[in-house]
Each structure stands twice: as C-alpha cells, then as structure tokens.
Automatic annotation (TrEMBL):
Family matches, as Pfam families: Asp_Arg_Hydrox (PF05118)
Ranges where the Aspartyl/asparaginy/proline hydroxylase domain occurs: 207-362
Record protein name field: Aspartyl/asparaginy/proline hydroxylase domain-containing protein
Coiled coil region boundaries: none
Comp. bias regions, Low complexity: 73-86
Compositionally skewed regions (Basic and acidic residues) per UniProt: 21-39
InterPro entries referenced in this protein's UniProt entry, alphabetically: Asp/Arg/Pro-Hydrxlase (IPR007803), Asp/Asn_beta-hydroxylase (IPR051821), IPNS-like_sf (IPR027443)
Protein family per UniProt: Belongs to the aspartyl/asparaginyl beta-hydroxylase family.
Region (Disordered): 1-39, 73-104
UniProt keyword annotations, A-Z: Dioxygenase, Oxidoreductase
Stored Gene3D superfamilies: B-lactam Antibiotic, Isopenicillin N Synthase, Chain (2.60.120.330)
Length: 380
C-alpha cells in the first residue's frame, strides 16, 4: 500500500489525517486573508461615505435607530456626535451657505431700546418718577390718595385713573368743549346727552316714583325757602337747592322730610352716594335766571334730571346741543361738557323744578368706582 493511501487512512476513521488538516488549514488561511482584504476594502468605502455623508453612514450601520442630524454649534469646525436622540444624536456639519444668520448685538440692543421706550400707564409708578411739577396742589393730594389706595388694595385696574391724575393739569389748560375741572378720566366715551338705555333701571325707578317725589317736594316748598329749613343758594341769585345728598354726605334732616324720595334714592343701582362727586336734591331756577357757560367737576358721572315743574321757556344747552325738560321724564346729561341753563319765562310761570341725581358713567368699571370712592371720600 502506497504512502499516500496510508496517510489518508480508512474511510470514516476518527484518526486525524495530517494531509487533510494541512489542506484545510491552508484554505482557511487563504480565506482569512481574502476576508481581511475585503473587509478593509469595504471599510475604506464606508469611511469614504461617512466622510461625505455622516448621517447616511449612521443609518446604514443602525437602520433600527432613528437619528436626527443636528447642526453644529457656533464655533465648531467638524462633526460631533452625542447620544441624545432616543439612542444617539448625530451632529453633522451644515453648509455655511444655507445657515441661518445670527442676530447681531446691535439689532438686539435696538429691540430692547424700543421696548423700554414704550410707556404704559403704570411706568411712572414702577420707576418712581416724580409727579408733574406743574400739577396743582389738589391733583397732588388726589395722587397721594391713589397711591395709598393701591398700597392697601391693588394697582389692578387703576391705569386710567393714574393717567388722568397725571394729565389733569394739561386738561385744565387746553381749550375744549369738555373740560372737567377736578378730574378727567381718559378713554371714556362721552356725549352731551345719553340715551335712556345707559341707565334704564334707575330711570324707570325714578319715573315710576314721580308722583310721590313731586308731592314731597310741594310739601317742602310750601314751608318756605330758607337756609334754616335746609335750603341753600347755588350760583347766581334765583337758583336754590334742597339737597338730600351733598357731595357724598347725607343731609339727614332733609331726608327725614322726604322719606319716600330718600328710599327711592337707596333703590338706585348707580347712585353715587359714597364720594364727593355725587349729590342729589331738588333744584329750583327762578324766572329770568340764566346760568352762563360752566363745566362740571368730572366726566365719571352722569346727571339724571327728573322734570317736576318745567315751564315752556326753559332750556338746557350741553356741548352746543339744546334740550328741554319734560315733567315726569328723565334726561341723562354729561355736565363735564360746557353747558348753559336759562329760564326765559315770566313770574306767572313759576320756577323750574327738577330732581337731580348723580349716577356713575356706564363706562367706569367697578374697580375704578371703588378707587374713586376712596380717592374722593367726602370730608365729614
């Protein structure tokens, strides 16, 4: 038997065959060399692709991982990777031609200056700006009262009041058909005569009470007009007032003389009874009397005139608009406009008599009403 056959050994034998082992080892070596070479070639291709498209390389290696390409931070010069997108976040270089320009410092400063230049109602308060030097002593007193109110309660809703107090001096100096001399609330829509719908409830209450109000006035009038009996003279000779409320203060003796009228006042929803801007009472204007142009103290109220005795020759002109009273009916008047009153009738016509009640302007908010009650608190 030849040497080659002896080396191969019997078929199915478990004995090692040195020739076969050597051949297998040789083939394995050649395979490893070929595989290493092919791996190196593939690795070189992949490296080339990764240099051109890092995101594609990551997706090829990990197709099951979702990655987002994040532009590099300012000042970076190459790609960087960090693991923060589920599993990994890949940062790739961004083409500078398509990059978003960064805002310059000059643009940022201009924006800040514009924001700082915008002045709101409360800017002087927050910045501790001094009150206008040209403001009158009365305006300064009211402004201190507003600050005291804000310390106790809140600045919320006080924007218009704050602005009005600071600008009151300019309002008094300008020529205008509407110029309240005490306090002007800005941004309040105003017309000389308001429709009934502005205070429908209170007007209906007053008109329904017209007979009893007229009866109580006649009882007081028949006792005579005398300051000792509760009457007072207002303005020129011929105009007298029997007040139930005078500048926010109840005149107790006069209210006891007209109990039904007093209860009617208390049933009104918008009657100004808690500050010096509000009054109520019977106003008489004798024949031949004329009241020249005058302005009311504020535009935060409306005067409601209930006609009790209105001769035909009486006229009311507010803001250039003439109007006449009617017995048993109400007129809503903004007396912050320039207004005149005249009674051109004779002695036989008797005086013109109205029941006047001050009501809140419908565009004054509840928070502003509370603050005005505090600021214009009546002096007891």
């Amino acid at each position: 038997m030849s040497e080659s056959l002896l080396n191969e050994g019997p078929a199915g034998s478990d004995a090692p065959v040195h020739g076969r082992r050597a051949a297998d080892k040789q083939r394995k070596g050649r395979g490893e060399n070929d595989g290493g070479k092919s791996d190196r070639v593939r690795r070189g291709e992949v490296l080339t692709l990764s240099a051109l498209c890092p995101g594609l390389w990551t997706w090829c290696r990990f197709p099951h991982v979702r990655c987002w390409v994040v532009p590099p931070s300012a000042g970076s010069s190459g790609p960087s990777s960090s693991s923060s997108c589920g599993t990994a976040t890949v940062r790739s270089p961004v083409d500078p031609r398509h990059s978003v320009p960064k805002a310059s410092a000059a643009i940022t400063m201009e924006t800040v200056e514009e924001e700082e230049g915008t002045e709101s109602y409360l800017t002087p308060v927050l910045s501790h700006a001094p009150f206008p030097t040209e403001a009158a002593a009365e305006s300064r007193k009211l402004y201190r009262a507003l600050q005291d109110y804000a310390k106790r309660y809140s600045w919320a809703g006080m924007g218009r009041i704050h602005k009005g107090l600071r600008n009151q001096a300019r309002i008094n100096d300008r020529p205008s058909i509407q110029k309240p001399h005490l306090f002007y609330l800005p941004d309040v829509p105003s017309i000389p005569f308001f429709p009934r719908d502005a205070h429908r409830h209170d007007i209906e209450v007053l008109e329904a009470s017209y007979p009893i109000i007229l009866a109580e006035f006649q009882a007081v009038y028949q006792r005579g007009i005398d300051t000792k009996l509760g009457w007072s003279y207002q303005g020129p000779k011929g105009q007298t007032v029997f007040p139930l409320y005078n500048a926010g203060v109840c005149v107790a003796s006069n209210c006891r003389a007209c109990p039904c009228t007093y209860r009617t006042l208390l049933s009104l929803r918008t009657f100004i009874s808690s500050n010096s801007l509000g009054s109520a009472g019977f106003w008489l204007l004798g024949p031949g009397a004329n009241l020249g142009g005058a302005y009311g103290p504020t535009n935060t109220r409306l005067r409601c005139h209930l006609g009790l005795q209105t001769p035909a020759q009486c006229e009311l002109v507010v803001g250039g608009e003439p109007q006449c009273w009617s017995e048993g009916h109400c007129l809503l008047v903004d007396d912050s406009f320039l207004h005149t009153i005249s009674h051109n009738g004779g002695a036989e016509d008797g005086p013109r008599v109205i029941f006047s009640v001050d009501l809140w302007h419908p565009n004054v908010a509840a928070a502003e009403r509370q603050a005005l009650d505090y600021i214009f608190a009546p002096e007891q």
